[in-house]
Amino acid sequence: MTLNTATSNTSNIQAIDSAHYMHPFTDHKSLAAKGARVITKADGIYIWDSQGEKILDAMSGLWCVNVGYGQKSLVEAAATQMQELPYYNSFFQTTNVPAVKLAERIVKLAGDNYSHVFFSSSGSESNDTNIRMVRHYWATLGQPERKVIISRNNAYHGSTMAGASLGGMGGMHAQGGLPIPDIVHIEQPYHYGLAPTEDKDAFGIRAASWLEDKILEVGADKVAAFIGEPVQGAGGVIIPPKTYWPEIQRICDKYGILLICDEVICGFGRLGKWFGSQLLGCKPDLMTFAKGVTSGYIPLGGVVVGKRVAKVLIEQGGDFNHGYTYSGHPVACAVALANIDILEKEGLVDRVLNETGPYLAQKFAELGHHPLVGGADTCGLVAAFALMQDKEHHIAFDESLEVGMMCRNHCFANGLIMRAVGDRMIIAPPLVITKVQIDDMIALILKCLDATLKELQSHGLMGNELLKMNAA
Ligand code: PXG
């Protein structure tokens, strides 16, 4: 049976899927009951399922297909490289041309502060690398007790033991005895959720001050690094006030602790700059990347290493006993080079900054007039809003109603991929999206919001009805 399946084969694929394929982050009992949607092809910003349904992929796969689907030059780059040198490692004093070229190119995009790149195959692995690297850095400098890494609630830094520990997802910590030692968390800078009436800039400074509080609580001489996503992605697209990151930088500098920005989502143009930190006003010592570096066409990740860290590791660190079979994989690096070619030639990063990003911001501001929509906000081509039961009085829905899921199901049924994180609805469309396609996407979002509103009203769950129900 081929996977380019005809409609009649869908139920067969679903049966085999549920018999043999264990999916990530999935409740298999409920999936088996309805059957997985089988995605068979893709082009531009659209994917198709095995029933022939065309779906607007407003999540770029899983925040990664930055140049959109169907880019032939990426396929050609992979095929050519596979024929020439499909694999070789970089362990035993060897290297390969695509990895060298890509390291040089990423350092240039990152800017003056950086000199090296360490490659992995995913964001999770890269964050494992970060932990090993910062602890080795401090040990090399004669301060091995500087081990603690400070992260944030609801952060997402991957799903390995270290990645999930750095992350701040309660559901992940609850399984497998996490977090591992010496990782602590502070609250996220979620203005709309935590302090909607407070001045935004003042809140940004206050949220950053939680880092200083934690450093003092742990002891500055024990803190190795702070890690954060410039804009939190999987945690619900939390866009910090503009005062936040410069203040985080100031605090890290004050105590000499390393700053790690996890750019797995924000990197490679998502926010309108090559890296999110370039937009939001900080200069991390280490930057995690993955996803957009190859637009998801092939797995690749890594860490951009700042001069401060690289100098110590290279001049004094000796052997860094760490690396992966696929570090600097020639095929993945060749695809990344072709991907960066497209981003550059089509001017996609500037387009996000100057054209599609501002246009999306304007459209999301308009969405804010919908009765369900609270706190609509965008940054480049990530955007989110909260579904609110009574937005005038800032009353959220009861969590047990799973209103986000309700809305997401309407999206699914109407040919739109939009994610729900609790009651926050989030998008991150491919960077090739045009203004006309943004209009189409907004029209679909509105349709799904109206359908959600109707469903809520039909259950008497809007406005005063719900308040009455809660009081009863
Ligand atoms: N850091 C960040 C900021 C991420 O978003 C990772 C690290 C881990 O990357 P890998 O390649 O190991 O998956 C990610 C991944 C979601 C979702 O629910 C988001 C991610 C992965 C899975 C689900 O939005 N981001």
Question: Mind sketching the topology for me?
Answer:
Elements: H1 10-20, H2 28-34, E1 39-43, E2 46-49, E3 54-57, H3 60-63, H4 72-84, H5 97-110, E4 114-120, H6 123-140, E5 148-152, H7 161-166, H8 170-173, E6 183-186, H9 191-194, H10 200-218, E7 223-228, H11 244-255, E8 258-262, H12 276-280, E9 286-289, E10 301-306, H13 307-316, H14 330-345, H15 348-367, E11 373-379, E12 382-390, E13 395-396, H16 403-413, E14 416-417, E15 419-421, E16 424-427, H17 435-458, H18 464-471
Parallel strand pairs: 3-14, 5-6, 5-7, 7-8, 8-9
Antiparallel strand pairs: 1-2, 2-3, 4-10, 9-10, 11-12, 12-13, 12-16, 15-16
Helix pairs in contact: 4-14, 5-14, 6-13, 10-11, 15-17, 16-17
Bound molecules: 3-[O-phosphonopyridoxyl]--amino-benzoic acid (PXG).
3-[O-phosphonopyridoxyl]--amino-benzoic acid binds next to helix 6.
Keywords:
disordered C terminus, 2 domains, 18 helices, globular, alpha/beta, binds 3-[O-phosphonopyridoxyl]--amino-benzoic acid, 16 strands, Aspartate Aminotransferase, domain 1, 7-stranded mixed beta sheet, 5-stranded antiparallel beta sheet, Aspartate Aminotransferase, domain 2, 472 residues, 16% strand, single chain
